[in-house]
Structure formats: structure tokens, C-alpha cells
Amino acid sequence: MQKHILAARSENLSNDQERDLRIAVSDSFKVPVTAVCVVGSAKLGFRLFRKAPNVKKDTPERAQFSAFDDYSDVDVAVISQGTFLSHWRKVYEFFSDGGYTSRGNWVGNPESNDFSYFLTHGWVRPDYLPGTGDYDQRQAWQARVNEINKKKIVSVPVKVGLYFDDKFLMGYHANGIRKIKEKNDRAQT
Length: 189
Fold this sequence. Notes:
The chain has one domain. The protein has a four-stranded mixed beta sheet. Helix 2 packs antiparallel against helix 6. It is of the alpha+beta class. The chain is built from seven helices and four strands, in the order H-H-E-H-E-H-H-E-H-E-H. The protein is 47% helix and 10% strand.
């Protein structure tokens, strides 16, 4: 994990692109540039998992281990305990205040289940924060990412996930590799 994810250069971004992207994310999320890491297919040069087609985004199915392409995005990990805890506290306050006043309680809302799943894995994504009504953190996060994308540092969309620490980042990726290995082991028997 350290060799191929944390320490390696990106297979699909030039040194200048990776540097500029890390600086832009660092500035936007107010974390040190050392807390920003390119991950996923942009880092490895290929996707680890099959991607189903997305009719809304007009993207085709992409096979497991297929190359990074024009339908890919650049996944960026921000590793910051302080930023992670800040988002967690805001969701807690939202939940404690009853959640959505216009749509009922957050408990039982699919977003709360998705958020809980990612929280137990030590990271969050903006699309799994509360997204409508009384909570504005998802929109604020997406606005920061939109500003980064407007800079056109890379030709495909950038997405940003927030990890509590590097152990959760490495654990998440190691778990993905473990799933691939188990699937391949079952296929061979």
C-alpha cells in the first residue's frame, strides 16, 4: 500500500498535474499538501473493480482492470483527523437537532445508512453527507470540488474523499485488494 498508493507517482497524471492538483485540494480544504494523495485508477493506471454503466452520465460499462480513460475520474484522498472530526461533529449536530425538518428525522433515511457505513470505515464522501434541506455541508464540499475542477488541472472530473488517517486509507484499499484476491481464488477452485 505504501509503495503503490501513498509513495508512488500517478500513472495517469504528469508530475506537474499531480503537484498542482494536490496544492489546489490542499488550499481548498485547508490542509497541508502532505495530507493530499491521488488514489484509485488515476494512481494505478487501471481500475480495480468493474464499473457498471451509468445512463444518467452516459458512461459505458468498464471492465475490471481496464485502463484509466476519458470516463474515469481522479480520486483524491484528504487525510486529516481535524477535518474529518469537524464533518462528523456537524453531522452529529444535524442528527441531534432532529435532522430534516421538511422530510422527517434523519434516522432511517438512506443517507444516514450510507454515512454510517463510511464512518465505520474511517472516511466520508460528500455524496453520503446529508444532502438537502437544513444541512449545507454537502453543498459546501461540492462547491470546493467544483472550483478545483474549473481550474482544469486534469481533463476528467476530480472527486475528493476525506479519511480520518492513513491507516483507514490503507485499510480501505487493502480490503479492496483482498476482495479481488478472494474472488480470483474462488474462480480457480
